Amino acid sequence: MHKRSIVRVGVPLLVASLALSACGSRGGTGTAASTGNKTAVIGVTAPFSGDLSALGLGIQHSVELAVKQANANNAIPGWTLKVEAKDDEGKPDVGKNAATAFAGEPNVAGVVGNLNSSVAQSTQPVFSTAKIVQVSPANTNPSLTQGAKFATAPVRTYPTYFRTCTTDAVQGPFAARYLSQKLGLKKVATIHDKKAYGQGLVAAFTTEFKKLGGTVTAAETINPDDSNFQAVISKVKPTAPQSIYYGGEYPQSGPLSQQMKAAGLNVPLMGGDGIYDPKFIVLGGATANGDLATSVGAPTDSLPAGKKFLADYAAAGYKEPAAAYGAYSYDAANAIINALKVSLKDAKDVASARQATIDALGQVSFEGITGKVAFDKFGDSTSRVLTVYKVTSLKWVPVNTEAFK
Prior knowledge:
The protein is α/β, with parallel strands linked by helices. It has 13 helices and 15 strands. It folds into two domains: about 15-165 and about 300-375, 3-Layer(aba) Sandwich (Rossmann fold), CATH 3.40.50; about 170-295 and about 385-405, Response regulator (Rossmann fold). It has a seven-stranded mixed beta sheet, sandwiched between helices.
C-alpha cells in the first residue's frame, strides 16, 4: 500500500478544482476570484488513514474528478466548485467532529460520505441540523434512511441524507439467495463484529436464509478489535456449517478466513461489500481462494460508462485506485452537482440555498456510472443491482450480477 498524504480533521483541504492538474494537485482559491465566480464547497469525509484508507482515498479522488470535470464544463454558471476533504478515520467520534467542522462553514453546499454506517449514524444529525445534504456512496445499513423500525414501520429521520448504493436489506437477502439457490447450501453459521453495518447485514441475511429453508447453525459475534478468532471458531466448527456468513470489514475477515481454515473449518467465508477489497485477499492469504463477497452494482469495468470513468480516473493520475466505491462516489458528487444547478442558479450564497438543495437533490434523475441515479422517498437509491464475487487465483472475480426483486 502506498504511503499517503493524510488530511486530518480540523485542517481543511481546499481544492480549487478548475485549477487541478492532471495529477490531482491542490490549487489555491484564486480561480473563483479571477473569474468573478462565487464559490461552493463539496465536502468529502471518509477514512483517509488506517486500515480502510484505500477505500476512503478512492472515494475522495472520485469526488475530485467529478468536481474537476464540472468546473471544466462550467456546470453551474457563476459558480466555481471546490473539494474539501476531512479524514473521519472510520470512527464515529472523529466523523462527528468532521461533520461539525463542515457545518460551521457557510460555503459547504453538500458532503459525500461516510464510508462506514456506524460513522454516518453520528454525522447524520449534524448535517441535518445544518441543512447540508449528505450523499453516501457506501453506507448500507437500512436504519440510516428508514429508522430503527425499518422492517416494520419505516420513517425517514433525516431529510438531508441520501445514498447512491443499495442497502443491507437487499444485500443480505441477495447473499442468502445465492448460497441457498445457486450453491444449494442448507447450513450456514453467522459471525458479526457488533457494529451497525455487520449487525444489519447478518440480520437481513439470516431472515432470508431461514425463509428459504436454511438453518443457521451458530450465530456468534467478535469484538471490533479482535485479531485472534480461535474462541469463535471453536464454537462454530462443531455445528458443521457449509459456509460462514460474516458481517464486518476486511481487516478482520481476512485473518478470520485464514484462521478458520487453519483450524480445519474448510468452508467458504462470505461477506458483504465490506470485505470486497484486494486487502482481504492479502490478509487471508492463499486460503482465501473460494471465499465470496457481495457488492453493490455491476462491476464498474463491465459497463461502458464505467470504462470511461476508469479511463478518466487513470488519466487524472491519482496514486490510489478508485477501489470499490469510486463509481458510487463519482455518482454521489454528480448528484449533488445536479442539485446545485437548480438551487444555486439564482442564489446569492450557498447557505441561503441549502433547503433548495435538499429539495432539488430529492428530484435528481440521471444516467450515472453505476446506472440510473435517482432516490426514493427515503433517500435510498432506486437501483438494486448487486454482484457476487469469488476469490479465484487470489483475485476477486464476478460470478453473478443481477437486479434484486
